[in-house]
Amino acid sequence: MKNLTKRILLFVIAIPGLSALILFGNVLNFLPINLLVIILGALGSREMAGMFHAMDIKVNKTFLTVSGALIPIITWMQVIGMINPGSLLFFITLLVILIFVISLKPSGDSFEKNLPVMSASIMTLIYPGVFLSYITRITSLPYSSVILLIFMCIVYLNDSNAWLFGMLWGKKSRGFVAVSPNKSLVGFLGGVLASVIVAVSSRFIFPDIITGSIPLLIGLGIVAGVTSIIGDLVESAMKRSSGVKDSGSIIPGRGGMLDSIDSLIFAAPGFYYVILLATAGL
């Protein structure tokens, strides 16, 4: 399926669906959205584990799939006050300890692959589980429906504008990053520009909610825009390293779940911390 078709489907189906979920999903502390984050955490972790298996690094898929779901669950319970604020750090520490314990078992007839298995398992614990949990943190903010909508627009308009700028004017600047030779510098700048425009525009569309200064909002757009693009490049590097074309096949025409949420995953932490300042009137 061509890139244009994929983006048409994104705008016709995915973005309206997500927008409806965000605007009308404030039920039980955004339970519908957080259930989606939990599912994405599980599926994304399973796909990460699959990429390591393709490299003959046999991480425990079941354990990591469950962990990818549990981290957003614990985060949601934490932000709604069901458990102590320090519970997530304790839980992640416990999971890391369990990874070490599981790795005491030899891989095959030797311990040669145990260190790669430990490292890969901890990486899968963080990406996507911990990164995705920042979307759950966003749902705990005041006016979170509006903030989530801004976040989604910053990320997906970044991607679309980067593709458009790259297609129209970026042919001569392609290959500026080796991991994705079709990406262009012009596309990169076009994507970041779109993110900055969305961030600054939010100040005028929602003046009672987004009260930060214009320079801070420009910074928000740059941080979220750059991390969105880095997220796409990082996942491309992972796929190249593991020798797979797509992270999975769950979404017809687009590949795996990680192929569709890689930008969201990377942009969420930076966006969360800067939006805290932007809604505090700084």
UniProtKB/TrEMBL annotation:
This is Phosphatidate cytidylyltransferase. GO terms for biological process: CDP-diacylglycerol biosynthetic process. Keywords: Cell membrane, Lipid biosynthesis, Lipid metabolism, Membrane, Nucleotidyltransferase, Phospholipid biosynthesis, Phospholipid metabolism, Transferase, Transmembrane, Transmembrane helix. It comes from the Bacteria. It is a multi-pass membrane protein. It catalyses: a 1,2-diacyl-sn-glycero-3-phosphate + CTP + H(+) = a CDP-1,2-diacyl-sn-glycerol + diphosphate. It is found in: Cell membrane. It comes from Spirochaeta isovalerica. PANTHER family: PHOSPHATIDATE CYTIDYLYLTRANSFERASE (PTHR46382). One of its GO terms (molecular function) is phosphatidate cytidylyltransferase activity. Its main location: membrane. Belongs to the CDS family. It holds the Pfam family CTP_transf_1. Coiled coil: none annotated.
